[in-house]
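Action item from last meeting closed. Structure (116 res):
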């Protein structure tokens, strides 16, 4: 089984700036997208991110790309828009690996490559 981690960019840092309700709302919206794409039984909380497991690597990556696309389309409040600078929606990064720690490491690497 292939594992993936999906998380909102810099949520560890920005969670301190966001009101608790906004933080929970963003995570809830991301979880809804993941549940819709992969099914609620495959989505689990992992630190500040979520993990997803799937037997087919290609299907997993295709689903992650769809989630990333729809997260950019999510409507945010002015408070959230100010924190995530000039981006529209919510910036999401994902990583894939054989274990959760590998996937999280890949997600961190991808986030670093994206830049600030």
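Sequence:
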């Amino acid at each position: 089984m292939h594992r993936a981690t999906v998380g909102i960019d810099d949520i560890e840092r920005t969670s301190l700036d966001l009101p608790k309700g906004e933080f929970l709302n963003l995570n809830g919206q991301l979880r809804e997208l993941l549940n819709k794409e992969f099914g609620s039984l495959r989505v689990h909380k992992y630190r500040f991110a979520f993990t997803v497991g799937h037997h087919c690597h290609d299907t997993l990556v295709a689903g992650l790309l769809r989630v990333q696309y729809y997260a950019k389309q999510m409507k945010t409040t002015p408070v959230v828009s100010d924190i995530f600078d000039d981006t529209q929606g919510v910036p999401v990064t994902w990583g894939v690996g054989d274990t959760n720690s590998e996937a999280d490491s890949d997600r961190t690497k991808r986030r670093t490559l994206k830049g600030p």
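Note appended to the action item: The mean pLDDT is 89.
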